Model the fold of this input.
Amino acid sequence: MKAMILAAGRGERLRPLTDHTPKPLLQAGGRPLIEHLILALVAGGYTDIVVNTAHLGAMIERHLGDGERLGAQLAYSRETEALETGGGIRQALPLLGDGPFLVVNGDIATDFPFRRLREPPPGLAHLVLVPNPPHHPRGDFALDGGRVADLGTERHTFSGIGVYRPELFADRAPGRFPLAPLLRAAMVGDQVGGELYPGFWMDIGTPERLEAYGRWLDGGSAGSV
Done:
């Protein structure tokens, strides 16, 4: 199974850090964020990885190259402007192949064991949810018996980790569009499975969270940010 890292975002909340450095190359623990993810994917058995780029994308390609030094084989899906999550995945489908594939947001930090996601999902998608962080208390989706739903009393946050079948995007033309409406439509047909992961996870969306991730990597506590 191939994997994709979403790395095309502008990183507005991390400005001015991202004015001259693409968000995936911001460092924590002496290593760029995207390298932490690539190494975790490789450890989980994912070595064939697609990276989509837009803002300062050439810098990402120059830094990572073909991925060999990290144990990976990298391919790049280049976007003139960021196509959002759905559009970015849709454009990368020729690189991802005909089977299910794993997608990971490039601005998260986690110790999730990616090897757990090697099996194809029974439906169109399988999402990893996490407990709601302080900055997102209302969550995104509900989880009921291994199925993800848009409605429910206890909602959890989408981690930015998911396995998808290409058929999820079959009716969408290329272009800029979000992923969430496709997932919600599939949920109506009971085609989205999921799990709740209680381990370490962070959305690196602010300088404070970037610093907190560095503390966690150094053996400390990330705290609540």
Remarks:
- The mean pLDDT is 93.
- The chain has five helices and 13 strands.
